[in-house]
Amino acid sequence: MLYSYTMSSFLCFISFLLIISCYAGILPTGTQNDHKARVLDLPLSQQEHFTDLNNDKKVEHNTEYDHEAFLGTEEAKNFDKLPVEESKKRLGALFDRIDKDHNGTITKQELKDWIKSVQTRYISDDVQKQWIQMNNDSNNEISWNEYDKTTYYALYDDVPEPKTVTDQYLRLQKKDRRRFTKADEDGNGNLNKREFADFIHPEQSSRMKDLVITETIEDIDRNGDGMISLEEFISDIWDSKQANDTTEPDWVKIERENFRKYRDLDHDGKMNRKEVELWLMPTDYDNIQAETEHLFHEADADQDDQLSKEEILEKHDVFVGSQATDWGAELRIHNDL
Question: Which residue in 45, 61, 168, 245 has its CB near the most CB atoms, within 10 A?
Fold first, then answer.
């Protein structure tokens, strides 16, 4: 998110756990991403929209974010591998799909609807993938035993693990058990597919809202006072030891200021539960609308609040990229557009 809900305090163990969790590519729900996924909204991209692209501590616009928001993560990778002309050809075909009324232009609402459908598909695909991995008996429900034995198999096999890893697994197992119980809406001890979606993507479910807030506070709150201090907040998003540099980048300084101005609303130096809720679930921000406005700003040359095919193709690098943005990854190319 993205965005699978995450636990940044577990990041230092990920490299090792990736090795011991290679079975079916499964990790506990708390290890699927990093702090970037904390604000709960549809994951427009796995990238940061503005980030330090050149490791020079200067925040810049990242076009990869726009590509993934417009295409979806996997299709963005495919487009990145294409030659420019083929990329434009496929973008033209996409234009015709987005232009629902077939009048030759795309409105802001049509673009917004498209981006929303792309990101909703991401959630559905992820649920389906994990459902297949977890549903060992191929019925219409997943039991806790199925999920537990598949995800935390290292706790049950005969291979000894370091105590630190075992302790982390036990903590995550306990956390997942609580979330599983909350997601089990009918209380029958199993999860149907809708309940399973709420379990692995609680940030997308209104009935899981309170638990998401609780989990977030537990993840970041180091001193156990039930609140998130400024330093706890900063340590969650930036590790000076891992960065091997005690000089804070500009973006961290900006986050410090944002915490004081916009997150700690009562200015007591900490975020209480209500302030955490407003941070995770902002009521005054629509990320899909923001991305739509951004793409229009980049491409609407005549500023008529509509995008013609010519305008989009002229700015194809903003929407889909090309070989010019390929970082050398070996990517599969689909021809399904």
Answer: 45
User: Which parts of 142-208 fold into alpha helices (H)?
Assistant: 144-151, 163-183, 193-200
31 with 172: CB under 8 angstroms?
A: yes
Domain-by-domain residue ranges, the chain?
8-227+286-325
pTM of structure:
0.67
Query: Is residue 278 helix, strand or coil?
Result: helix
Give the residue among 216, 277, 192 at the shortest CA–CA distance from 30. Answer: 216
Contact status, residue 271 vs residue 233, Cβ threshold 8 Å:
yes
Please state the φ and ψ torsions of residue 20, each to the nearest 5 degrees.
-80, -10
| d(C-alpha 116, C-alpha 11), whole Å | 29
Q: How many CA atoms lie within 13 A of 127 on its CB side?
A: 20
Q: Is 6 within 8 Å of 14 (Cβ atoms)?
A: no
CA 19 from centroid of its chain's CA atoms: 22
**H-run or E-run covering 210:** helix 209-220
The answer to whether the CB of 239 falls within 8 A of the CB of 46 is: no
pLDDT by residue, tens only, the chain of 337 residues: 333 333 333 333 333 333 333 333 344 554 433 344 465 544 555 556 555 555 655 656 566 666 676 777 777 777 677 788 888 888 899 899 999 999 999 999 999 999 888 888 888 988 999 999 998 778 999 999 999 999 999 999 888 888 998 999 999 999 999 999 999 999 999 999 999 999 999 988 999 999 999 999 999 999 999 999 999 999 998 887 766 667 888 889 999 999 999 999 999 999 999 999 999 988 877 888 988 998 999 999 999 999 999 999 999 888 885 433 222 222 233 334 4
Instruction: Name residues whose C-beta falls within 8 Å of residue 9's C-beta, 6 or more positions apart in sequence.
Output: 219, 220, 236
Closest C-alpha to 309, from 78, 94, 43, 15:
94
Chain-centre distance for alpha carbon 202: 12
Give, as one character, the DSSP assignment of residue 304.
S
- Sign for the CA dihedral angle at 240, 246, 249, 253 comes to positive
